[in-house]
Amino acid sequence: xxxxxxxxxxxxxxxxxxxxxxxxxxxxxxxxxxxxxxxxxxxxxxxxxxxxxxxxxxxxxxxxxxxxxxxxxxxxxxxxxxxxxxxxxxxxxxxxxxxxxxxxxxxxxxxxxxxxxxxxxxxxxxxxxxxxxxxxxxxxxxxxxxxxxxxxxxxxxxxxxxxxxxxxxxxxxxxxxxxxxxxxxxxxxxxxxxxxxxxxxxxxxxxxxxxxxxxxxxxxxxxxxxxxxxxxxxxxxxxxxxxxxxxxxxxxxxxxxxxxxxxxxxxxxxxxxxxxxxxxxxxxxxxxxxxxxxxxxxxxxxxxxxxxxxxxxxxxxxxxxxxxxxxxxxxxxxxxxxxxxxxxxxxxxxxxxxxxxxxxxxxxxxxxxxxxxxxxxxxxxxxxxxxxxxxxxxxxxxxxxxxxxxxxxxxxxxxxxxxxxxxxxxxxxxxxxxxxxxxxxxxxxxxxxxxxxxxxxxxxxxxxxxxxxxxxxxxxxxxxxxxxxxxxxxxxxxxxxxxxxxxxxxxxxxxxxxxxxxxxxxxxxxxxxxxxxxxxxxxxxxxxxxxxxxxxxxxxxxxxxxxxxxxxxxxxxxxxxxxxxxxxxxxxxxxxxxxxxxxxxxxxxxxxxxxxxxxxxxxxxxxxxxxxxxxxxxxxxxxxxxxxxxxxxx
Length: 650
Prior knowledge:
The chain is α+β, with helices and mostly antiparallel strands. It has helices spanning 2-23, 26-31, 33-38, 45-52, 58-67, 117-131, 137-149, 156-163, 169-186, 190-199, 206-212, 245-254, 264-273, 291-303, 313-321, 334-383, 391-408, 412-437, 446-468, 495-517, 519-529, 531-536, 541-564, 575-588, 593-613, 618-635; strands at 71-74, 80-85, 90-94, 101-106, 110-112, 218-223, 232-236, 279-280, 283-284, 324-329, 484-486, 492-494.
């Protein structure tokens, strides 16, 4: 008998389902005809929900047609169809259930349904149910993005149901992650929500924090007795740091648990409105020139019930003492809020550690930029002792060289490969010419050298403006340098900055090789330590100085190409780096390439640290950095790594 009953029940359910399928979509549309025709965002939701939850395969087509503004209502009977424009002002109507054309009608016989943006957004959310299992991967991805933008509890079950059959591994991972986030917010099972929170407590994604933060939001409330059916976060005492007595009483007033206090302005207005024969409450108006007199007059009016009574401090104390003040969580489950608080604490700790790592990477990146800009100056100023104020303009010339090369070589990868040696050659030649024509006549005369090179820097800036104009020129990085290396939602560094770091290390190795393993390096060290003795050994100090200055200038040109990939290429480009370059060399130790590296690291970390503490004012950060460096030089005038021996003047 039981088996027969179950079999009959199954047959009945199958019949009901078959009848529902046979009934089709039109009866549902007719049931909600009025609100569909009205197309108001405030009332349309029941109709969209009924269509989406009907289980009919044609519901997806119907919703897509509606969203595309191709759904029409026949005025004669109120039926809805898909419409396509025919000849003239006529439209061909197609039945949603059968897919058959029902005829062609004039526009005057029809009403077009034009959903506004709000209704289209609601239709889009409803379509997500169907799109999650759509054969088209692009539609499934669009459905996930739609859920991320506008999550709803009703989408949790369709999302779960679509995960198992998802053929794409990447989309499946996205669905699983999104399912966990929706479970945290909308699942009716408390244990399932707690489990999801614990599983996501190691995730640093912004979306995870966005799902957890609403669970620990609190609201201040008051009552005569502490309620037992709410999730209480804190008990507050009026007069404490978290809740002043005035704020507590204002909360009582807002909750209709205490009378509104009368302000001094209210007292004055009430007295002015109740003047009778030159008196208010039996007190002459001329005597109402003090707060006490006005309060007394107001009290007389209140006793006569003309105005509402004053609230005294005693009344306030009684009201506060007879009520409790507490904060409750917006989330009713204490288990969920406890798990969310624990997870947020873990995430905040990891976010802090990752922010430190991100700041460190930023500092290393900035240090590599400063080192690359200063390595040429470390040669000309540190080794030769020449104060070259035009060093920044060599950086600018290198950037413009890269821009010119890209005008002839459109392939950005090839153009950068060509631009680096080209920039070195151009600025090397310019440096040699400058040393031969100006610098060689000013050795051992630092003031004259400074003034001369400063004048040359101004001339080069003006020349660049005359040639290229004042508008910034683009120096485009290759496509493989686009984007960033992303470790997580907190830590990332652009590929361009990574490339600059690698380039800086390459030039560090190249400089060390030249200085330690080549004849030019040996001659440079000899001339630096004792030019007269080097000359007596057959070394030409003038030639060595020329090549040394050219080498430093050439490296500055290469730095210009690298800097131009992320900075604006203008005639003022060099001015942004000349001060940092000198600071790098001086702080690190004049005449020492390792000192320049240490100085760049110190300045990079210092600047990023100050900017982190004061992110809203970059100029102030630079000012603090310069002050710190001035103080540092007072205690260590020779820099971090000081030269020793004859070159240091010992």
